[in-house]
């Protein structure tokens, strides 16, 4: 029982750490896309 709780707690905390990077990656990609667009103009 205790082991199960521990595994579940770690699995539950992981998404939090993984949920922050995508936002920065998304903003980075948007700037890259903007740069490409400017270069084409």
What does the radius of gyration come to? Answer: 19 Å
Sequence stretches where pLDDT stays below 50 over 5 or more residues: none
> What overall form do the CA principal axes indicate?
rod-shaped
Helix content: over 70%
**Strand segment tally:** 0
Average pLDDT rating:
62
Measured by DSSP, the beta-strand proportion falls in under 5%
Largest sheet composition: none
Overview of the molecule:
- By secondary structure, the chain is mainly alpha-helical.
- 93% of the residues lie in helices and 0% in strands.
- The chain is built from two helices and no strands.
- The longest helix is centred in the last third of the chain and has 20 residues, at 21-40.
Give a quick set of tags describing it.
rod-shaped; 93% helix; single chain; hydrolase; 0% strand; alkaline phosphatase activity; 2 helices; 41 residues; EC 3.1.3.1; mainly alpha
Summarize the structure.
The protein is mainly α and 41 residues long. 93% of the residues lie in helices and 0% in strands.
Outline the fold blueprint.
Layout: H1 2-19, H2 21-40
């Amino acid at each position: 029982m205790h082991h199960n709780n521990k595994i579940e707690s770690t699995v539950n905390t992981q998404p939090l750490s993984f949920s922050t990077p995508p936002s920065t990656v998304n903003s980075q990609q948007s700037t890259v896309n903007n740069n490409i667009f400017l270069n084409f103009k």
